[in-house]
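fwd from M.: "can u put these together and see what the complex looks like"

so here's what she sent:
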Amino acid sequence: MLVLSRGPEQAICIGEDVEVTVLEVRGDCVRLGIRAPQSVPVHRKEVYLAIREENARAARADGGTLDGAIRLLRAEEVTR
Amino acid sequence: MRIETTRFGAIDVPGDRVISFPRGLIGFPQVTRYILLDHPGGGPFQWLQAVDAPAVAFVATDPRVFFPDYTVPVSREEVAAIGLEDGRDAAVIVILVVPKEPEGITANLLGPIIINARDRIAAQIVLDSSTYTTRHRIFERGAAAPC
């Protein structure tokens, strides 16, 4: 891993199109500004990983349970 | 056009029903063409079925059915990425995880799918939200399921 030291308002360039700027350092939190083309999605890593994991779980669905869910919905409608 | 699916066999769908996901879904970047099928058993459920990968299919729903207050703030970049010019052309669906017990079905409200319904281009977006998670039970409104 490349390690660089940067202070507030200093930046790094990644390739031609991506620029990451340190906006503010406060305690143990760093605010970053990221300039990247639309084709480069930028995400908080833990959120990205959570969604990726959830997609993988969802893709295994066989749907057999859905008919049970529809019965539950109908039962809810009746009791409302 | 005829597409092969693991769950529904070979099905015929009009070619103009294909929804293009230029970036795929998160974790599925190579799978970029889907169709949205109503669940054969009825109800508010749909299947997001990959056109080119028979085994890849997700259960999805209109989030407003279960979470009436759910809103999706969409950034200018995301709007541009799917060519959306008019908000009225936008449709939002969320992906469900369907376990064996229907009571345990959860909706991913943190990573909704926004569809430009006019041009049939879509993207899964990542919300910057502390309110929503990837696992909201649909039968206990708003409550997040334990991990």
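replying to her w this: The mean pLDDT of chain B is 90.
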